[in-house]
């Protein structure tokens, strides 16, 4: 897959309505993009509306430029989700747990290979059983005019609670995926 690494702020010089022609997809990875993205949410929103595809991974945009958890995280709101409102410190936003796929269509969309799901559709290792992953808890926002959000997987936390953790939604001419 041809790809390139770009400095996010260099994209701000490009018209977001034109960018999808040369940059069809953007991936904002966890860790690297947790901070320092203040001010790019509007550009990303316009980019997706114009036909760009955006993948927000785990903690992308979850912290302010100074490293504090944001409770009104613009990047997450671009994707139509928000951090858990009941978590004022950010401590319970990220927890370990297992992933349960929403069904065969979700497994196909996420390209899960045969043998990697147990009978309950929990992501498993060959011969290792269910695997534990870091989960980012969020609340799905459904504005009245929004396209439907598709939940591809839920997370099962160690305390047994289960919440959606992988969302996809069409927005304008583009597509958003939060994982």
What does this structure look like?
This protein is α+β, with helices and mostly antiparallel strands and 179 residues long. The protein is built from four helices and eleven strands, in the order H-E-H-E-H-E-E-H-E-E-E-E-E-E-E. The strands form three sheets. A seven-stranded mixed β-sheet has the order 1-2-11-10-9-4-7. A two-stranded antiparallel sheet has the order 3-8. It has a two-stranded antiparallel ribbon with strand order 5-6. It is globular.
SSE diagram, text form:
Elements lengths: L7 H4 L13 E4 L12 H9 L3 E4 L17 H5 L2 E3 L10 E8 L2 H6 L14 E2 L3 E2 L2 E4 L1 E3 L8 E9 L4 E10 L2 E5 L1
Keywords:
single chain; 30% strand; seven-stranded mixed beta sheet; 179 residues
Summarize the structure.
The chain is about 15% helix and about 30% strand. It has helices at about 10, 40-50, 75-80, 105-110; strands at about 25-30, 55, 80-85, 95-100, 125, 130, 135, 140, 150-155, 160-170, 175-179.
Label the structural class.
alpha+beta
What's the helix-strand series? HEHEHEEHEEEEEEE
Radius of gyration: 17 Å
Residues in β-strands, percent:
25-35%
Uncertain regions spanning at least 5 consecutive residues: none
Number of strands: 11
Strand order of the largest sheet: 1-2-11-10-9-4-7
């Amino acid at each position: 897959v041809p790809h390139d690494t770009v400095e996010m702020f260099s994209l701000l010089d490009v018209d977001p309505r034109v960018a999808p022609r040369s940059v069809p997809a953007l991936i904002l990875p966890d860790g690297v993009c947790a901070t320092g993205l203040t001010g790019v949410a509007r550009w990303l929103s316009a980019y997706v509306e114009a036909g760009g595809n955006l993948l927000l991974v785990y903690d992308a945009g979850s912290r302010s430029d100074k490293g504090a958890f944001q409770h009104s995280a613009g990047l997450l709101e671009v994707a139509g989700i928000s951090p858990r409102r009941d978590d004022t410190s950010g401590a319970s936003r990220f927890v370990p747990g297992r992933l349960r796929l929403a069904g065969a269509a979700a497994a196909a969309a996420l390209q899960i290979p045969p043998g990697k799901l147990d009978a309950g559709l929990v992501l498993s290792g060959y011969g290792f059983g269910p695997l534990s992953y870091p989960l980012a808890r969020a609340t799905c926002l459904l504005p009245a005019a929004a396209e439907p959000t598709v939940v591809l997987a839920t997370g099962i936390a160690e305390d047994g609670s289960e919440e959606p953790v992988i969302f996809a939604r069409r927005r304008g001419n583009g597509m958003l995926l939060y994982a």
